[in-house]
Design goal:
The complex is a heterotetramer, with 2 copies of chain A (333 residues) and 2 copies of chain C (340 residues).
Chain A (H helix, E strand, L loop, with lengths): L2 E5 H15 L3 E5 L15 H5 L4 E3 L4 H13 L3 E6 L9 H8 L2 H4 L9 E6 L14 H5 L5 E3 L4 H13 L4 E6 L6 E5 L11 E4 L4 E5 L3 H14 L4 E5 L2 E3 L4 H10 L2 E8 L4 H12 L9 E5 L8 H6 L4 H11 L9
Parallel strand pairs in A: 2-3, 2-4, 4-5, 5-7, 6-7, 10-11, 10-13, 13-14
Antiparallel strand pairs in A: 1-8, 6-12, 9-11
Chain C lengths: L1 H4 L2 H24 L18 H4 L7 E4 L4 H6 L4 H8 L23 E4 L7 H14 L5 E6 L6 H12 L4 E7 L2 E2 L2 E2 L9 H7 L3 E6 L3 H16 L4 E6 L17 H8 L3 H11 L5 H24 L23 H11 L2
Parallel strand pairs in C: 1-2, 1-3, 3-4, 4-8, 7-8
Antiparallel strand pairs in C: 5-6
Classes of the chains: A alpha/beta (333), C alpha/beta (340).
Bound molecules: thiamine diphosphate (2 copies) and magnesium ion (MG) (2 copies).
One magnesium ion binds next to strand 5 of chain C.
Chain lengths: 333, 333, 340, 340
Amino acid sequence: MTAQQTTYREAIRQALLDAMAEDDDVILIGEEVGVYGGAYGVTKGLIDIYGADRVIDSPISEAGIVGAAVGAAMTGLKPVVELMYVDFIGLVMDQLANQAAKSRYMFGGQIEVPMVLRTQGGTGRSAAAQHSQSLEAWMMHTPGLRLCMPATVNDGYHLLRDALRQRDPVCFIEHKGLYTMKGNLDTARADADWGQPAIRRTGGDITIVTYSRMVHEALKAADAMAEQGVEATVIDLRCLNPLDMAPILASVRDTGRAMVVTEAALTGSVASEIAARIGESCFDWLEEPVLRIGGEDIPIPVSPKLEAGSIPDAGLIAETGLWMMRRDTLAWA
Amino acid sequence: MTAQQTTYREAIRQALLDAMAEDDDVILIGEEVGVYGGAYGVTKGLIDIYGADRVIDSPISEAGIVGAAVGAAMTGLKPVVELMYVDFIGLVMDQLANQAAKSRYMFGGQIEVPMVLRTQGGTGRSAAAQHSQSLEAWMMHTPGLRLCMPATVNDGYHLLRDALRQRDPVCFIEHKGLYTMKGNLDTARADADWGQPAIRRTGGDITIVTYSRMVHEALKAADAMAEQGVEATVIDLRCLNPLDMAPILASVRDTGRAMVVTEAALTGSVASEIAARIGESCFDWLEEPVLRIGGEDIPIPVSPKLEAGSIPDAGLIAETGLWMMRRDTLAWA
Amino acid sequence: MNAQKNTAPLDRYRTMRRIRSFEERVGELFLRGESAGSMLHLSIGEEAVVGVTDAMGDGDTFTTHHRGHGVFLGRGADPARMMAEIGGKADGYCRGKGGSMHIASHALGHLGANAIVGGGIPHVVGAGLTYRNKGTGHVSVAFFGDGAMQQGILYEAMNMAALWRLPVIFCCLNNQYGMGTRIDRAVGKLAFGERAEAFGLQAAHADGTDVEEVHDTAQSLIADARGGKPGFLEISSFRFYGHARMDKSPYRTPEEEEEGRKRDPVLKARERLIESGLGSDADMERIDTKADDEMDAALESAVTASPPPLDTMFEDVFHPDSPAPAPQRDRLRAILTETP
Amino acid sequence: MNAQKNTAPLDRYRTMRRIRSFEERVGELFLRGESAGSMLHLSIGEEAVVGVTDAMGDGDTFTTHHRGHGVFLGRGADPARMMAEIGGKADGYCRGKGGSMHIASHALGHLGANAIVGGGIPHVVGAGLTYRNKGTGHVSVAFFGDGAMQQGILYEAMNMAALWRLPVIFCCLNNQYGMGTRIDRAVGKLAFGERAEAFGLQAAHADGTDVEEVHDTAQSLIADARGGKPGFLEISSFRFYGHARMDKSPYRTPEEEEEGRKRDPVLKARERLIESGLGSDADMERIDTKADDEMDAALESAVTASPPPLDTMFEDVFHPDSPAPAPQRDRLRAILTETP
Ligand SMILES: Cc1ncc(C[n+]2csc(CCOP(=O)(O)OP(=O)(O)O)c2C)c(N)n1
Ligand SMILES: Cc1ncc(C[n+]2csc(CCOP(=O)(O)OP(=O)(O)O)c2C)c(N)n1
Ligand SMILES: [Mg+2]
Ligand SMILES: [Mg+2]
């Protein structure tokens, strides 16, 4: 098998399956990853194949589990620790940022921590303020920690395989709203190289930079804009940090217009970082300000109506993009 | 007493003294805040005045302490919890971001958490990777949490008094390198209103936006630039979130040039957020790209030479500022 | 007071029966597509917690975990407002912002349900500080599951409560499971009371099928806690259904479930009351019917209630005296229209 | 092996005496302005930890807290490279990046000193998983202070070690103080061993003035841990000096300090060896002088060593196969020079 139609969930599971088959040192650890198969079913059945010593159901001890993964990685295993929701990252930021991310550095390169922290975030299930967040900005602000967030089925597989090849800690954030999404998986061919963004659509008028679930909203928006004669390039960051900005800068220099979209609360978000970089490096090429579109700066409300209203969608992206082209006037301006 | 010369440490201590005298509900809790007087001496002697029920030496249980402060605030006290180093914030991010910051919202406005988390950060003491960080960006990315960072003696007093008047949780971050700095304290007059930045110097050529210890580096840089005939406005954010951007935007629209400086690792920093906002709102007024200057994207090394080399200083700020005016060529470009 | 009239056991039965009936309707709310999300954790099988809530007094406070509907009803919650909140409606306890996992009531001393396992535990330590400093005589109780016994923050909280002799109770509702993991697969040594004692708490255990045993144990622990002797109470029960409403518990056998559901605190209380002559068969029928009717009405009122207006999403982030966060469209509009 | 020749107690004395001498010179390094920072935590008074390090074997690993110089020397560290690291020099164990609080050695099994109280504790659980899965027969030991007994992560780690029967030892170096707070002001019930037992560990206590007692206790616990029975060892001692090099301990009385310093493990071992005839006065003098000379040399070599070149700051953030983070000046230069 190289190419097949499958789901985002299955692609990630396949990456775990393949990595575990290739390398006995790969272990999974986390709450409900074994018998239950993962809260979102990503690790289903793996315990039956690889046994309880390699697929380890843990107590509800997030900090302890991540700390254990750090120690396992230091001594020769390749742990994949699952944090059930990225919202629980506040329990483990010390182990992640002060321990995993800094060990190589503090110890002068002697000790490495090759582990992957898999988790999932985002809205869409009315799971309220403590189960719907997008907190990648905290991890992006952590030197020594790699960060990636797959948006496609193929990336679900390849980014995780790549993450497991790193000798550094990687934070790998899935999106709860994408697990059932279908798409093409070609295990022989990644969407782009590790560390490189992927250009998901090409258009000469405007560059939309985004990642994770918002890639799909941006693509929908690009289609809507195309109906108005505006052609957008949509770039998927994939590997948020470290990140090769060159393809992004090249596109913006070409189109002269850039929008950065995130599902996270806008203030202090990844969108702000990318917008600032574009602003610095594309100044003389820009026709319009680099606009950021993000989640409202509020906790996520449980009411489905309020939840949906607090997050960007294709409509808002297209509307803003069209305004930037001055092809249309902003309905709400 | 209204005006006097004193230190940053003393000004903060005075704010605690005065607030505790006015309001019996104000309590202090934290490691070594009582008998020891605080790791940096800010709470010295307070236990002798207000007793052990109001100045509470805690076990080394950061998450528990912050959680206790949340509960105390919910039930009628006004706790000031001291986290010895902001580097330990990874232990308490759940209690801070998921509990303190979100309670009012999740509970529909019924329950408020009026507490202040005092802590200190920054470099300058060769305290290495886990005792030298500037992690305010995590807090800035947390809706519902107020954030302020005093740069001056007067703000040490007034921002803390103001923070204690809020009915919301406030993260108050001091800088370890400023405690012995002397300056004027006028208890009757704040440098600016709560939520407003302070303009620390006025000049028509370039706007430097910064906060905390970097304000002083920026002011030094502005003096050096003035010798070359370039006049800079230096703006101190003070209240990083929420923040009234109007004075900043007005200044940049006036000067046409902006630089944002932070001591934190640049990627995902407060500087990126502010730069993105300026880029959005001042596009048509900008003569040059909004430049960010920050800490290198590395953990903080212990070697004094490496530590100092990884953080911006007046030299780098002035050099960059002068280049932006094209009055000089960049020595290192 | 209740105890003198000896109607207390009957009252406790009534509350337990109302909880059972309420939770069944929460499940229905979901099936009818009217719940906000699917994260609904039913406390069926754990109704004997009423023995604790009934031992608490006016002004006492508490926090709960994600499976806290029963506790809240035990402390006097209005089921219609609860159901509305679970439906994400404007009339809910939290204006439709919190939902099942974040229900709270300042007026009833509910400092908040929590969706972070262990997250609400240290809050009672802070409440204890308030009561100690103000000398109010109140007590604060943290309710949590057996899963939270593996969260470190619990032990930080226990140590502080013991060190400072705070009026605090840690109440572990041990239903044998944390999601799909049976307790023996999560715990190295099954001796929760020993843990609490080692941290300096007074520890007790009560059978979660026997609400009167729970009540007596809680009453004594709470009295001691008010006197500055914090306590730990473990109540053993069995989680009758899946972890959340959608979970079919494939990780346990039908036999185990059948056996477990025999440990029914509501049924046992009913039988006991009849046996002891405190209520007749007919009395009990009346109580049951009334509970069902009440909860049917709560369900219907929640279904017909209105969702919150969209712009209420910006309220309650900060104190109402301060400006609310600006909606994104306002920011974009300002950028767009100010550009010369 | 050592035990057969019976030179082991003498070896242990030698190591303890070297630790004492080393720590005194760390203090000197600071006074001479040659240390990187002032966060230097001396382990004087706690040298009997050698009883544990001596009971560990080749390939065993460990983590330490911020007061870990003694443990590391006990496991064979080169004092000159340690001193260089404490001085922030390029020749140090960590290339001058970590300093006293982050010293480590992959080769010697030191998985890292930690400046976060409790931060290194769970790492031994992970090491234990590695040894279990690979069947190596190794054990991993976490060394930490009494202060860390109040960090929740310790109990999460203990539970996992017990649950999974890992070859792990939790070793608490109880020196009665966490900074300026005496243990009875931080702990609700002083019974650390009980805590560990309640979590399913085998717990033991040893007198920190008696290195042989420490050794015997550690040896038996470690043997059991290798067999899948994890343990907890508390060693009681007294922190002779301030918390860090600059702290003059105003929070305790001179009498308390004087009394405490009578609990001197180095002196006691020396006296015992002489008493038991294992070493003469002269033997001991020779050992002492040699230790002092060795540490004098380490100190001088650290003082004269070179600081790391500035651009090494960008190395070791990521694996050397990947690009290092770009220096800020490069970024600014690119922006400036690319502008048309
Ligand atoms: C910190 C944290 N970890 C994990 C979860 C996911 N989760 C929700 S409930 C639960 C099981 C909790 O078990 P227990 O404490 O026994 O409560 P019960 O559901 O049995 O009432 C888990 C793992 C969570 N919400 N928060
Ligand atoms: C998480 C954390 N909290 C607080 C500190 C500050 N601090 C450093 S050492 C110390 C005392 C530690 O006491 P103990 O664990 O007994 O070790 P000792 O210093 O006595 O060897 C404290 C509070 C820290 N470094 N990390
Ligand atoms: Mg349970
Ligand atoms: Mg100690």
